[in-house]
Amino acid sequence: TLTQILKKLVERDSCKQNLKSLSEKFMIDQYTYKKANANQWMEAFEKECERFYITEDEKKIEMLRYFLDKASLDWYNSMIMKVTIKTEWNVWKSKFCETYVNKGWNPIMYALSFKYMEGSLVDYAVKKERILLEVRKTIDLGTLIDIIAAGLPNNILHRIDRESLKETEDLFNELNKYEYLTKNKNFKRGKNTNTDYEETPNVKEPCKTCKKLNKGTRFHPEEKCWFKIKADEKHKNSPIRQVNASMIEAELIEENQKNE
To answer: Is the pTM of this model over 0.70?
Structure first.
């Protein structure tokens, strides 16, 4: 009857509203193919479904839609047409992982090469921890700490006692102590390289040639010193050098004659 049809529609809308409301309480990020590990993300999604007692296959499939990015939604809509929402959840799960599992090295290389660029040191460390865990959840704690620390600027890194770091939180606490350094005007940042903190300004050295010749204290590159250039030219044109050159030439001629 019409009443029953309307009742089912109302129940369906109510169910969708409940799922959407529940999705906002899930402790996972939206799935993004370029960044997330498909298998790990799916495992986290299923745990969240379990936490909110979403056990029916159809509801899991409906809930999945709220956590897919635009590109993944195209896959979802194709699956709706191919296998329908009535198909078992395990089929959807299997198809999802087969489609989005990344067998290449790009995510690993991105995670390992991710370095501090600017801003908060702690924010960098927390983000790198997440990126590393997304590609390798089973990474051991010591290696995780080492790789995070390796992306820090050298003059921050060498202030930290490595042996004292037992948890990533220990590293975060240490970095908190040095946040003030990032606000220093000498804290340089590079687009594709590590930043470096200069504790002391560059000190110019006086020209040694000028000092040796008692020409006063002058600051310029020694190789461009006028007195050094003149001295080198004089040395090249000296009689001793010419005699030495003549002697070498005579010896070469004599040697050639012997060989003949």
So the answer is: no
